[in-house]
Design a protein that fits this description.
Radius of gyration: 22 Å
Largest sheet: 3 strands, antiparallel
Number of domains: 2
Strand order of the largest sheet: 1-3-2
Strand content: 5-15%
Distance between the termini: 30 Å
Mean pLDDT: 83
Low-confidence stretches: 222-232
Number of helices: 8
Shape: elongated
Helix content: 40-55%
Length: 232
């Protein structure tokens, strides 16, 4: 039995130690304490087993400001930490392809629900952004259309903040998550988001995005739990 298995067994023993049967409870507590001594497990180790990491694919390979902002809003609302990850592999055609993912780190189901919320909203934002770009005059340069689309998306994320806050339901165990991230991901680096909309002076695109974001939809799954099939 390795240390991770021992921690899981300790958690089960501690649960049994709350049994109404005195002999069963005492035996379970003795076993938990023995395992904790043998594997040098403390209370923080036991708490960390409740921390989950859930990966979701980013809206695009680029770390766009609107996408990063949405990740941050969702993570904060659901009491999670988060980080980005870029992974690559060779596809069936023999070409090396990369994909960007965001990883939500939370206690119990918080990471699952945050990942679900991000995935649903990022799809809505990406679709709304594309529709806004298609509305632009045909004589607009591609770079101008992209900038206007990004300005719209930035506004959209601002507009959806209240919806995310209403949907969220958890508090952040900041001390536990900081300890978890320091132990599991000590080498994470800060990445600067790409802001193609920085030079857009026309606030009309931002305001249009805010108005559209306020109409976004985010529904709970059965029993208030995010559907697992949407978290691929």
């Amino acid at each position: 039995m390795n240390r991770d298995d021992a921690i899981k067994k300790i958690k089960k023993c501690l649960a049994l130690s709350r049994s109404a049967e005195p002999h069963e409870a005492a035996a379970a507590m003795r076993q938990a304490q023995a395992l904790m001594r043998e594997y040098r497990v403390d209370d923080r180790d036991l708490s960390m087993i409740d921390v989950r990491e859930v990966r979701v694919r980013a809206a695009s390979m680029a770390a766009n400001v609107w996408d990063v902002s949405l990740v941050n809003i969702v993570a904060d609302a659901f009491g999670c930490s988060q980080y980005g990850s870029v992974r690559g592999r060779f596809n069936d055609a023999g070409n090396y392809v990369r994909k960007r993912e965001y990883v939500f780190v939370g206690v119990d189901a918080a990471a699952d629900v945050a990942a679900y919320a991000y995935q649903v909203l990022s799809r809505q934002c990406a679709q709304a952004r594309l529709a806004h770009i298609r509305k632009q005059p045909k004589n607009c340069k591609p770079i101008t259309k992209t900038a206007r689309g990004d300005a719209f998306a930035n506004g959209w994320v601002c507009g959806v903040r209240d919806l995310v806050d209403r949907f969220a339901s958890g508090g952040k165990n900041e001390t536990l998550l900081l300890a978890y991230m320091a132990e599991k991901h000590p080498d994470l680096k800060t990445e600067e988001a790409k802001n193609k909309a920085a030079k857009v002076k026309d606030m009309g695109h931002v305001l249009a995005g805010i108005k559209a974001g306020e109409k976004a939809q985010l529904n709970r799954g059965v029993g208030g739990i995010a559907p697992r099939e949407l978290l691929a």
